[in-house]
Automatic annotation (TrEMBL):
PANTHER family: SOLUTE CARRIER FAMILY 22 MEMBER
Keyword hit for Phosphoprotein: no
Signal peptide: none
Gene3D superfamilies: MFS general substrate transporter like domains (1.20.1250.20)
Location of the Major facilitator superfamily (MFS) profile domain: 97-512
Membrane-topology descriptor: Multi-pass membrane protein
SUPFAM superfamilies per the UniProt record, alphabetical: MFS general substrate transporter
Native source species: Calypte anna (Anna's hummingbird)
Transmembrane regions: 142-159, 166-186, 192-213, 225-246, 402-418, 424-448, 460-481, 487-507
Lineage: Eukaryota, Metazoa, Chordata, Craniata, Vertebrata
Family matches, as Pfam families: MFS_1
GO CC entries: membrane
InterPro entries, per the entry: MFS, MFS_dom, MFS_trans_sf
Protein name: Solute carrier family 22 member 13
Intracellular or extracellular location(s): Membrane
């Protein structure tokens, strides 16, 4: 019973009936949670005024006002503002001598920093993510993306081997435990380690959910199912904007965003889980209880599923006997001239991720209120995702994918040329770029799953996700280049998609075709 046979069954019983709709419903809670973990750190590291702790002078001048203390102990920059990362070195003089002669020698903030007392605790204030430590913010985002990458390496092949259900449950458990655990970490490096684990769990959920949607839903409704889950992700982004606005304490925000994933365990038993197309076809026939002209499964092992050590599948050939076994390794797939599109597939997934996260993680630097910008970023994704449903059905996969990538790159290049003081213009362009990047990202999810044959689809999707995660790791690190010139990051985020969009025209069209069984 090859995948084309499963497709015929789906056509006969309905390719998007109540059964499949329940499956799509399963993706709601995980997608909301994934959106939170992707971008929550943006709201935990606010841009706050700070200066060196200079309380040493209080020992000789206890009656000084705050302004007098700062004026005596902090140097000023070229704009006349107090330096945030240096102070005058302490001396053994009396207060009169200090006021008369002043201080000249400076040093770093070896005693820490002082922040506005009215501000609730944040990652920035608790772990001093300022001055020499400010790069830890973007590095932490890269570590989280590294977790997404590791999740691709681990959970993609594991899902092919032991099935979707175990992988999803393992991923949900890790995300719930380590997500809540982040709220109690005592050190920032522990925070980064926990975030890495959460990132791996996020990938475990997304790649397995994508495989389920691809394998259980008919070709005409497959884009709708995948993009509905992406719309839930966009709603999660909007919820994050409101949640972070109402809960400013970073530890409480972390708990509020991580705890709801525990609700997923209450309805996982309703999901159709499987490993490979034989398992899918068997359970499909059992669920729908369809005769379909005497169609029957010739062989079913006692465990009702296949567990293979590699991406190797055996098809029944009658009388309950395994007559032949056709195996395909990833190496064979990459070398086969009929699947030469694989490197290009990896390319556009890399590019999509780079521009998407390049814009999303830069939300604090566009000059407009971060909560409003995040709300707009989430809201604009909904029409972007929904619009993809109609575009993919009307124009196929290849042309929309290429054009959307080209538009995303063009917007980023335009942003790089806008003066920094034009915050509203930059934000509007960024929202436009987020629209095209989100549409491109959704298209790539559908397109990628259809480009790979069934026998290695999950591993292939995991491989493409790995390429996307590599660019996800690079995106926050590229933002660090803005310290040298603000144009550099956006120029890179714009140039790369332009090249990727042109290369995308070399890929085959998969719209309206059944999933390939093998190479």
């Amino acid at each position: 019973l090859p995948m084309s046979g499963v497709g015929e069954i789906l056509k006969a019983v309905g390719d998007f009936g109540l059964f499949q709709k329940r499956l799509v419903l399963l993706t709601v809670v995980p997608c909301l949670s994934v959106a939170f973990h992707q971008f929550c750190q943006l709201f935990m590291v606010p841009n706050l005024p700070h200066h060196c702790d200079t309380s040493w002078i209080r020992a000789i001048g206890p009656n000084l006002t705050e302004e007098e203390q700062l004026n005596l102990t902090l140097p000023r920059d070229a704009d006349g503002e107090y330096e945030q990362c240096s102070r005058y070195s302490p001396v053994d003089w009396d207060l009169g001598s200090i006021m008369e002669y002043g201080l000249n020698a400076t040093e770093k903030c070896i005693d820490g920093w002082v922040y506005p007392s009215a501000q609730p605790p944040s990652l920035l204030t608790e772990f001093d993510l300022v001055c020499d430590r400010r790069d830890l913010d973007d590095i932490s985002q890269a570590v989280y993306m590294m977790g997404l990458f590791l999740g691709c390496m681990i959970f993609g092949p594991l899902s092919d081997r032991i099935g979707r259900r175990p992988v999803i449950l393992i991923s949900i458990s890790l995300q719930a435990l380590f997500g809540v655990g982040i709220a109690f970490v005592p050190h920032f490096y522990v925070y980064m380690a926990f975030r890495c684990v959460v990132g791996a769990s996020v990938t475990g959920i997304t790649v397995s959910m994508l495989a389920l949607a691809t394998e259980w839903i008919g070709v005409t409704s497959r884009p709708t199912a995948v993009l509905v889950s992406h719309c839930c992700f966009a709603i999660g982004e909007m919820i994050l904007a409101g949640l972070s606005y109402g809960i400013r304490h970073w530890r409480l925000l972390q708990i509020a965003g991580s705890a709801p994933i525990f609700a997923f365990f209450f309805y996982t038993h309703t999901a159709p889980w499987g490993t490979g197309t034989l398992r899918a076809a068997v359970v499909l026939l059992q669920v729908f209880q369809s005769g379909l002209g005497g169609l029957k499964v010739e062989y079913l092992d006692p465990l009702h599923h296949l567990v293979m050590p590699t991406a190797c599948w055996a098809w029944p050939q009658g009388a309950g006997l395994w007559k032949s076994c056709r195996c395909r390794s990833i190496l064979y797939l990459l070398m086969d001239n009929r699947t030469c599109s694989v490197p290009l597939c990896l390319d556009f997934r890399f590019v999509n991720s780079l521009v998407y996260y390049g814009l999303s993680l830069n939300v604090t630097n566009f000059g407009v209120d971060i909560y409003l910008t995040q709300l707009a970023f989430g809201a604009v994704e909904i029409p972007a995702r929904v619009g993809c449903i109609f575009v993919l059905q009307r124009f196929g996969r290849r042309k929309p994918q290429a054009i959307l990538m080209l538009l995303s790159g063009l917007v980023c290049l335009i942003i790089s040329g806008i003066p920094e003081d034009q915050a509203v213009v930059i934000t509007i362009l960024a929202i436009t770029g987020k629209f095209t990047a989100s549409s491109s990202f959704s298209t790539s999810y559908v397109y990628t799953a259809e480009l790979f044959p069934t026998v290695i689809r999950q591993t292939g999707v995991g491989l493409c996700s790995m390429a996307a995660r590599v660019s996800g790791i690079l995106a926050p690190l590229l933002l660090l280049l803005g310290q040298y010139h603000r144009v550099i990051p956006m120029a890179i985020f714009g140039g790369v998609p332009m090249v990727g969009g042109l290369l995308c025209f070399l890929l085959p069209e998969t719209g309206g075709t059944e999933l390939a069984d093998d190479t």
